[in-house]
Design brief:
- This protein is mainly beta.
- 8% of the residues lie in helices and 39% in strands.
- The chain has three helices and 27 strands.
- The strands form four sheets. Strands 4, 5, 6, 7, 8, 9, 11, 12, 13, 14, 18 and 19 form a twelve-stranded mixed sheet that branches. Strands 3, 10, 15, 16, 20, 23, 24 and 26 form an eight-stranded mixed sheet that branches. Strands 2-17-27-21-25 form a five-stranded mixed sheet, with no helix packed on it.
- Strand 23 and strand 24 form a beta hairpin.
């Protein structure tokens, strides 16, 4: 048997072992560990930017020092799957009641244009992120978000929540200041609700507040979620709720995300809305407001391009890829000593680093004043396998790191970074790395990463590879809603 064949068999054994371990740590539902108390200063909820120029400028007049790192940026193999995603993110700041996103049929509805007529059947995802704000005491009435599901069939439908989580910014997941890298074995490290929901779903959790399953009778509707976004009584104030669920339905269903201020009793006490009150919003109201900025028309390329925010059905829940030299090989040759190459993540049409690859999920249905693509791929899982191969005659130390370079749309011969990085945070979330260490032991690490614009990052994994050795590394994460793309994964051989 040749060395290459033996190594190929060894690689397959490693892949099978990692796959078995991967499946064993992703059950349909687990109890979520209670995080320790965090001593923090509460920060106000800040809307996510509709375009890069919306981001607040750093509080400095000193010029930023740029650093060029010569390295190749490659097209990321693979593609998004075809699972539809109910994506409710516009308007992000909600100040009037109404429909956030409805895929119901427009017939019998008083505002037909608010309904996109898109049924879900089988596997689909639900993502939602919205903010409530109050400028004064008169605006502190609690905003509720409801997700209603309708069964249009003549038989009952079973709706399963496979994994899922929903968190408020306050008190569930405050935007706290964290180090760039923290081990997050138990899911107790997070900053912001987007960071927390993606960490939970990555681990296969279903939060106890969400039902495991709902049976919906024929031609009836049920509430999948009916939860508040309270702002409190101290104004001005804001709060946000982020939600991510992986769903499965036994037959076709329609879904709507709705906003309603808390109904009040005769004594003025706030109450949870009823199914009938939510159905009234669905049947009689138009789109909630205020509306976000409409995206720049396709084909135009102004200095300040507006992406818009997403409200519609996107295509793609996961990007899975085995990253090799090319389609004819089953390995990835590591760089020469002192060299590196990168694969871009969550690229948009203005930030491909010269690869021409746009990873933004396409929209299957959308409102005219919302984004043309699901820019940012919020909640989408990247599941990437690196079958590393040391072809050289020398031992080499190889690392894989996540980086947040300065966005570019052309090939520059490398990536640009800031030294030191800008203060603006562009990524906060948990990454899982699975690999065999230098002793052959299979390891799984969860690492919470905080990266600022222009930050070069630290290694997620380091391995020492002998001449001719192969080593399998798997990197996967869900792109967090609180992040700003693009990032890259960089493979480097140190000197």
């Amino acid at each position: 048997m040749s060395i290459a064949l033996r190594q190929g068999n060894l690689l397959q054994v490693q892949l099978n072992a990692l796959t078995a371990m991967f499946l064993s740590i992703l059950p349909l539902a687990q109890a979520i560990p209670t995080p320790p108390t965090q001593q923090v200063i509460i920060q106000r909820e800040v809307p996510l930017p509709e375009n890069e120029l919306d981001l607040p400028q750093p509080q400095t007049t000193a010029p930023l020092n740029t650093v060029m790192q010569p390295q190749q940026v490659r097209v990321l193999p693979g593609q998004l799957d075809s699972i539809p995603v109910f994506n409710s993110n516009s308007p992000e700041v909600v100040q009037t009641e109404g429909i956030l996103l409805s895929t119901f049929p427009p017939e019998t509805k008083q505002v037909p244009s608010a309904h996109l007529n898109f049924p879900f059947k089988g596997r689909f995802d639900i993502f939602a992120h919205h903010i409530a704000k109050a400028k004064n005491r008169e605006e502190t009435r609690t905003l509720f978000q409801g997700i209603i599901v309708h069964n249009p069939n003549s038989e009952p439908v079973t709706l399963n929540v496979l994994q899922g989580a929903t968190y408020l910014t306050r008190p569930d997941a405050l935007f706290i200041d964290l180090p760039s890298y923290l081990e997050n074995r138990f899911g107790t490290v997070f900053a912001g609700p987007g960071s927390r929901i993606t960490s939970d779903v990555l681990r296969g959790y279903r939060q106890a507040i969400l039902p495991a399953a709902i049976e919906i009778p024929a031609n009836e509707s049920r509430m999948l979620m009916n939860l508040p976004i309270p702002v409190g009584n101290v104004t001005p104030a804001s709060n946000g709720r982020s939600t991510l669920m992986r769903m499965s339905s036994s037959n076709s269903v329609y879904v709507a995300s709705l906003a309603m201020f808390a109904p009040q009793s005769q004594g003025g006490v706030e109450q949870y809305p009823t199914l009938e009150q939510w159905e009234n919003i669905l049947n009689t109201k138009g789109l909630a407001g205020p509306r976000d900025l409409a995206p720049t028309p396709r084909g135009e390329n102004p200095v300040q391009k507006i992406y818009g925010r997403v409200a519609g059905v996107a295509e793609g829940s996961q990007w899975e890829a085995k990253i090799t030299d090319n389609s004819r090989t089953d390995y990835l040759t590591i760089p020469k000593r002192g060299e590196s190459f990168s694969y871009a993540l969550s690229t948009t049409d203005t930030g491909t680093f010269g690869t021409g690859q746009v990873q933004s999920a396409k929209m299957l249905a959308r409102y005219p004043d919302t984004a043309y693509f699901a820019h940012g791929n919020y909640g989408i899982q990247y599941n990437l396998t690196f079958p590393l191969y040391n072809k050289s005659r020398e031992s080499q130390s190889v690392s894989i790191k996540m980086q947040t370079p300065i966005k570019a749309n052309t090939e520059l011969g490398g990536l640009m970074f800031y030294d030191p990085p800008e203060n603006r945070i562009f990524f906060r979330g948990t990454v899982r790395v699975m690999f065999n260490d230098d002793t052959g032991k299979t390891l799984t690490r969860y690492i919470h990463i905080v990266q600022r614009r222009g930050q070069q990052g630290e290694p997620l994994v380091n391995v020492n590879m002998k001449p001719g050795e192969r080593r399998l590394v798997q990197v996967d994460f869900l792109y967090p809603p609180d992040a700003t793309p693009p990032q890259v994964l960089t493979v480097r051989s140190s000197n």
